[in-house]
C-alpha cells in the first residue's frame, strides 16, 4: 500500500488582507503598518519510520517574502507592508515573493484554494552606483492578470525610480543606480488584478546573468536537429555518418554543420496541443540519444529564430528621423563622402518588399537603387512550413511574400534594410550608409519566424570570401549558445565579415544569441534621449547601444512617440504597396551599427572586424551614456567612428573579462581572462598595481605578454563583513596605455540567514503521470532544509521540492523556489527499495539553469502538483 503524506483540506475560508502604509501611493514616507488576516489548514501526517532523507541547500544570498499567500494561509506571515518593516536584501541577492491587489478563490482546481490580498512588500539593500535592481513578475493561472509596480528610494528618501514613470507597463523592470551609496528602500506593489509571483534581484556592478528565473522553452522544429561532427576528413565520410544518424535525411548547412531529420509520425498533419507536445518530447528524446554518439560533437534542436522588434500601436508616418542626429550622422556624412559605397551589407531577415514578389526586383523605392543585382546566389533560405512564398524551399529570390495582414511582421526586413541602406533620393527616408550595397537574405518566414538550420546555411554562404558581403546584420534571436551557429559566425568573422546582432527585447540580462557570441557585436536600444529603452536587454549581450526607439516615451519632447521610422509595405488583397512605419526594438538598433561600419569601411576599405572591435574597446566609436552593464561601450557616434577609421590609427588594446570583479562570501576567488584587440595584437604588460593588500593576483604578470587568464583572490580575513569595499586593478601596457578593472566586495550573507521559504518536498512517480506519493513540509534552519519520508513502496521516483508562494497547489512554477534531484532542470529518478536511503543532497533557488546548462528546452513545464484533495488540474513534462 502506498502512503500519501499531504494535506487534509476542506473548504478554506476566504480572507482579505488590508495593506497599510498608504496603499498605492508613490511616496515612501507612509504611515501606519496594519496587520494581516489569514487562514489555517489541518496538519500533515508525521511518518515514524524513515526510508528516504536528505538535505536541501539554499543558494547563497537567497531570501523570501515574509508574507506570501502560503504564509497567510498558515497564519505564519510576518508583515512587510511599510518601510519600517522592510526586509533586508543582500547584494547580490535574490528574493521571491507574492503580491495581489485582490483576494479570491482559484477556479477549476477542485480544491477550493484561496489567494490572499497583499498589496505591497518592502525591502532594503545596501547599494552603490553601478548596482542594479530588477523585478520579474509571473501571473498565476487563469486569474485576472495583475499589474505590478517597482519603486526605489535612495538613502535620503528621494524616489529614484518608479516603473509607472517613463516605462512600459509590463515587467521586467530594471534600474541601474546612478549615484549615491547606502541603504536604499525598494517597494514592490500590486496596482491591480489578481495574484502574482515575483523575483526581486539586487545585483552588484559587474555581476553577470542574474535574471534566469524561468525555464527556457524556445520553439523548435519537431523532428529536426542541427549537429556538428567530431570526425574530420573528406565530406563523403561525414555524409555517410549523418545519413546513418538521420532516419529521414540529412542536409549539409556549411561550416561543418548538418540538419538531421527523424521519422516523426503525423509531422505533416495539423495537430492538437497534446500531439504537438508529444512531437516535441519525442524530438528531444532523439536529440538526447544523438548526444551520446561518439562522433557527434554537438547537437541541438532546430530552434526557431525571431525578429527582434516590438510593434507599437498604429503610428502615422513621421518625417522626422530623430535617430540620425542622435548618433551624429549628418556630420559623419560630411566626413564620409562615399556613404558606404562598395560595402556589401547582408540583411538577414524576412526578405525585402517588392511590388512583384514572385520575381526578383521592383523593390521598395527607397531601397531599389542599392539592392544587389540578381544572380545565381541563393538569397532565400527559408524552408519547410515556415516558407510561405510561391517558390518552396531555397531559391534566388529574397522578396518578402507578405501575409495579407495589416502591419504584417513580415515586412520587418524592409524596415531594417531601410535603416541601413535607404537611398538619399529626396523622398521618404535616408539610411545610415545610403550608398552601400544592400544584399537582402531571407531567413525569416511565417510571422517573422525562421529556423536555426536556415540561419546557419545563410551565414555560411555570406561568410565565403567571394560572397560580396562585408557586414551581416542579424536583427533576430531566440536560440541558445548553439555550437554550429557559433562556428559559422566565427568562420565568417575570420574571413573579414563583421556580424552585428540585436541584443533582444526581454529587458533581461540573460544572454541572447547570436548577440552574446564573442565575435558578434551585440546592440542594445536607446530612446530619443539616449536612455536605455524599457524593453532592451542588457549585460553580456550588449557591446554598445544605438537608437531603437521606445513607444512609451517622448524623450526629445517633439510631441511624438520615440519610434524608428523606416521602409514598410502592405499586401492587402494581394496588392503590394510600399510605405513607411514606425517601430521599436533592438532590431532597429542593430542596423544603425551595421550602417556605421559600412560608412567606416567605405572610407577605409582595409578595415577589418578585428580592428572595429579594437576601436570599440578603445572608446573611439562611442559616447559614454551610462553603466557598462546597461550600455556596453556606450552610444555609437558616427562621426567619431568615421574619423577613427580614416585616421588608420588602429590601437592594440587589452581588455578584461569580466570588466568588473564582484566578490561575496560565496565567491572569494575569480578567474580574470584577457582579450586582445585585434586578436593578433602585440601586448606587453609594463606594470600591475593592485589597490589594496587584501586583493591578490596569481600569477604575477608584469614584464611580458598577458596570459590568457589569472586568478584574483580576496583575503576575507582582512575585511569587515559589515562594510562594502571598492578597489581596482590597474594594468599599464604598450608604452602607457591603461586597463582599469574595478573591484567590489560584499561579504555579508551569513549562511543561517538564507531562506527560500517553506518547502514542500515530494516523491513523484516517474511513470509519466507524476503522481505525488509522499509529501512533507520543511522550513529553513542554518541555510538549509532537512527532510525525511516514512516507508514508501519500492519503485522509481522523482525527488522534488519547492515553494507555493501563491497557494495555488503547485510548486516550482516560475517565480517560486525549486529543487530537483540531482540537478534542477535535469531530474533523474531515484530507486527506492527495502533499505533506507539517506544523505541525498539537492540545491534550491528562485533562479533556473540556463538553456546551455540544460542542453535543451524544458518542454511545457508547469510545476508539480501538491497532494491536496481534488482532481489533478494539470500535468508536468519532465525532460
From TrEMBL:
Pfam families: Peptidase_S8. The active site is at 349 (charge relay system), 412 (charge relay system), 587 (charge relay system). Residues 388-410 are annotated as: Disordered. Coiled coil: none annotated. Residues 340-620 form the Peptidase S8/S53 domain. PROSITE patterns: PROKAR_LIPOPROTEIN (PS51257), SUBTILASE (PS51892), SUBTILASE_HIS (PS00137), SUBTILASE_SER (PS00138). InterPro entries: Pept_S8A_subtilisin_proteobac (IPR017309), Peptidase_S8/S53_dom (IPR000209), Peptidase_S8/S53_dom_sf (IPR036852), Peptidase_S8_His-AS (IPR022398), Peptidase_S8_Ser-AS (IPR023828), Peptidase_S8_subtilisin-like (IPR050131), Peptidase_S8_subtilisin-rel (IPR015500). Keywords: Hydrolase, Protease, Serine protease. It comes from the Bacteria. SUPFAM superfamilies: Subtilisin-like. Belongs to the peptidase S8 family. This is S8 family serine peptidase. It comes from Marinobacter qingdaonensis.
